[in-house]
Every structure is written in C-alpha cells, then in structure tokens.
Amino acid sequence: MSQTLPSAGAGALTSGGTPKKAALASFLGSAVEYYDFFIFGSAAALIFPKVFFPDADTNAAIMSFATFGFAYVARPVGAIILGHFGDRVGRRKVLMFTLLLMGASTFVIGCLPDFKTVGWWAPVLLVLARLCQGLSAAGEQAGASSMTLEHAPDNRRSFFTSWTLTGTQGGQILAALVFIPVLALPDEIKFGIGWRIPFWLSAVVVVVAFLIRRTLHEPPAFEEARKTAQIAKLPVADLLKGHWRDVLRVICCAFIAAVSTVFGTLAISYAKTVAGVDGTTTLWLVVGANLVALGTQPLFGMLADKIGRKPVFIYGAVASAILTPVFLLSLESGSIPLMFLAAIGYFSGGYAAANAVWPSFYAEMFSTKVRFSGLAIGTQLGFLMAGFAPAIVAAMGGIKPGGWVQISIFTAIICAVAAVSALTARESFRTPTRLLGLK
C-alpha cells in the first residue's frame, strides 16, 4: 500500500473492531479479485481473439469481449447465494471461500487448451472458468465492504472502506506490470505459454491474502446481531420487503463501474485499433493512473467522512462523463505525456471519487441483518452494465475510427443514471453504524 492506515484519532468514535486489519484484509482480497479480472480483461483485448477463436473470424474481438462479460452474468446468482450465507453464518467464512474460488478459477484459465487444440470447446471452457470467477467476485467486494464498515469507527467508515476499492487499484497495477513483459515476447511465445504465466502467478497473491484474512474475526455489529437473535432466516426476503428501493438505487448507482471497464479494457482495444498505440503503452497508462489512485482514493474517502457520501460520489460520476472524450482523444494525439495526463485526470481525479466512496455509500443504506445481501445483489445487478460495456460499445462501432463518440455517449448516459440515483439517496455519514438502514 502506498499509505499507512492511521489510527482512529482521539476524537473518533470507537467501534470495538479492528478497522486496520479489516481494511488490510479487504485491500488484499480486492487486489486478488482485480488482478484476476484485469489480466482477463487485458487478455480479452489482446490475446484471446487469437487463442480461443478462429483466426479468420472477424467477430473474434466481440466474442472475446463477451467472455469478459459472462462473469457478470454469474454475479447476480452468486450475490443471492453468497449474500444469504454472508448474512446468516458470517462475513469472514464467505470471504475465505470467495478468495479460494477466485484463485483456483484464474489458475485453471492459464491451463486451458486453445482453439487449435480442441476447437469450440476452448471458448466454452473459458466461459465456464469465467463464470466461476464471477461467482467469487459476487461476494468479495460486498463482504469486504460490509466487514470493514462494521469494524470501523462511526466517523471514519468511508476512509476505511475506501481501502476495499483501493485494493482494486493495487490488483490492476500488479496485473499490468506482470502483463507488460508478456506483450514484449515474440508472438510464438506470447500466444503460446507466455500469456498463461500471469494467470498462474495469481496463486501467489491468493496465498498472501489467505494468510492475513484467516486471522480476522467477525465484526462487532454482526456478532451483536447474532447474540441478540437478529440474524435473518431469509435475508433476501427481508431485504426485498424492507429495502427494495435501496436495492434499486444501488443497482443504478453501480452503473458507474462501467467507467472502469471502459478505461481498463475497452480503451486498450480502441487505442490499439484506432490510434495505433501499442499495448505496452496503454498498459503503462493504466499503471500510472492506478498508482495515483492509490493516493487519491483514501483522500476521497476522508473527504466523504467530512462532507458526506453524496457530493463526492456525484462529483466522481459527473467528472467521469466529462473526461471520457478527453482521455479517448488524447489517445489519438500521439503525445504520450498528454495521454498520461489525461489518464490520471480521468481515472485518479474523476472516477476514483465515486470508486472510493461507494463501499460506504451503498453499505450504509442497509441494516446489519441484510447488509451483505443488499450490497451484493444491488452491486452485482448494476455491474452487469460494466461487464458488457466493452461488447456493447464494440458492437456499436466504438472501436472503429470516430468511435470515441459512441464510447463517450455511452459513458455519459451511465454516469447520468448513477448521479441521478445518488441524488435520491439518504445522506448517512453522520448516522451511527448501529442505526444504519433503520427507517
């Protein structure tokens, strides 16, 4: 991590939890998830069209992006299942399961045969492994955000939960740094064994995260609910009965996640196809922007603890919409310094605000007894937009000359939906954790 998590401070409200350890465990869990997701996204843009599909098929890029989106189809199913157990048996047990499932699925992808070896079975097996990744991801961020929020002091919830999403930046940085040398390999190695190495290396990150997460205990809020028999027998039923409006709100707000896939996956393909920017350069853009976001996201989290979740989140959505065309046009400029400046402004100064705040913003809409389920189901249904954004925009002609217009319009629409939905939410940054989600 780029910063040391500070103590709660003399004036902070205590929670009885271990917020630093929870934040670290969440950071590492998200790093695993997004290391795995980002290497898949990079491979979907640069490798899989040649490895898992017929060489002569002009739709290989669209089909490859579709495999990226299949994980998001599995996520709502996983959200219901894992949300149920997360609210019934505990956050920690579910998070241990999601960590191991994600690591195993990613390792298996690196072992799959290619199209030349088994024909159409190759993309079928790829989709199955991707579905397992999606099932894992459905519970990871919701569980990590719930656990960290419930461990955190009342007046620093946004700061500590921001480390869950800051872990995504750590994972993306690590994935890009591992993938960059692969792109430099000769084609026969790169499309042979080379692309598989980043998938196999995910096992290392999983082991580190597992060793830390296994020492973490359940948050005080959940333990209190268990002691007082406040655990829901059917969390989803209670959720839909008392919080269905909040679930819809989270779904629409979660559209903002599509900005991340536009930046980290679609823009790579656009830069290569339209602007002639090599894959190595675009991956360094991702590394640079995410490195800066390691610092800006905790700051946005701190700001949200001072002024509220809504203004910070809405700023992030509006800034993302405005800066998308700026970033895409910078890719066509031929100026690498301009590309880096635009990438950092777009991702680290704009999108990072919404990204840092949503774990606390969404989680605070729900009570302890349904928080895991509400956060998981709401986000995963909303994240469907993020998963299929590359395929949708590619089908609209977004990776052809002039495609920056389609990409920008698409991004502006999803950002507007997220911002308007956030406006309808209650501001909860001054509400004690024990009273969150109570009408």
TrEMBL record:
The keyword Kinase does not apply. The lineage of its organism: Bacteria, Bacillati, Actinomycetota, Actinomycetes, Micrococcales. Pfam families: Sugar_tr (PF00083). One of its GO terms (molecular function) is transmembrane transporter activity. This is MFS family permease. It is a multi-pass membrane protein. One of its GO terms (cellular component) is plasma membrane. InterPro entries: MFS_dom, MFS_sugar_transport-like, MFS_trans_sf. Keywords: Cell membrane, Membrane, Transmembrane, Transmembrane helix, Transport. Residues 22-430 form the Major facilitator superfamily (MFS) profile domain.
